[in-house]
Amino acid sequence: MKINKKLILTLGLVVFLLSCLNSQNMNWKEIETIGTEKSEYNLGIGTDYRFHKFIFYSKKNGFLAGAYNNFKVIQDKQLTAPHAELNKDAVILRTEDSGYNWKESQLGKGEILDIENKENVFFALRRSYHGNNAEEYHSHIHSSNDEGKSWKEVFTSEETFDEIHFWTKEKGIATMGLRGYVYNSIKFLKTDDGGKTWNEIRIPQSHETMDFEITKQGVLYFLTSSRKSYMEVNLETQEFNEIQLTFKELPFSILLDNQEKVYFIAENEDKRNIIYKKENESYSKIEFPVADTMVNDAWIYDNIISVILDKNGGSYYRSEDGGKTWKEEKLPNTFIRDIAFYGKDNIWIRTVPGKMLVRN
Fold this sequence. Notes:
By secondary structure, the protein is mostly beta strands.
């Protein structure tokens, strides 16, 4: 019998390529989620949940926070858009099994804009709507000492908080007027008692589009409006320092890794995103693995850099040597809604209703 060596080589190559593809995807699995979608109007095919925050604080425990706005009630009562705001229920969904099952907690009317975990105390920022046309906004701080099983309201105000950021279970700041929110000017408030009381503080060179990070010691880092320098503000002592950047690109974002090292994300002339890592008084350059594409999210933990993007069907790029080399993993589902990271390896991606991609 004559053996077709070309056929054998071709089949061997196909098997090899399939094995490579499978090895790329073996870190990812698609799971069905129970409790992440709810609707009385589009039963089984839609959702009236709208989430603003998606976080995991361990390999098994996480939150989805936002609002439930029953579209059937809106339709039946023919509510206008402002009156539909008054119809919202502020909700937090909690999982204890890595994202398979989710339980809902309602914290009142309105929506949850932010949720934080510091030293096993959880904080949630709720906005409620008032007035004949929902033109009045109130802010509420809720806290939980049992991992989100129960919540108590510790603060309410007629001022409009946009975000909350805690660096201990007692100390944190709230922002007003950032990133095009309600106010025409920006404002910062500080708490020293776990959100029960707040006092206004001054942040030098703050601006409405500032991107910032806060360390565990309460040091605030943010880019100035020129993007040629950044500020270092100690929120405990109010001491501050402006530091000039020495690379030519203008960064648009600032990041802290788990060790609180400072990184800046910029774009070069070839439309490639790049990262500059601050090392003493200099900056080391890290190039992203692909050019001319929108990055959905990035995460830095120890020496591992994770990048998720939609280009070419959806990909996850991972570097385990600080950005010197990269490996690509194709994503099984290309529709990306929200992303949560935990530690070195764990990633959750919300995709189509009732589904998540999980990497572990």
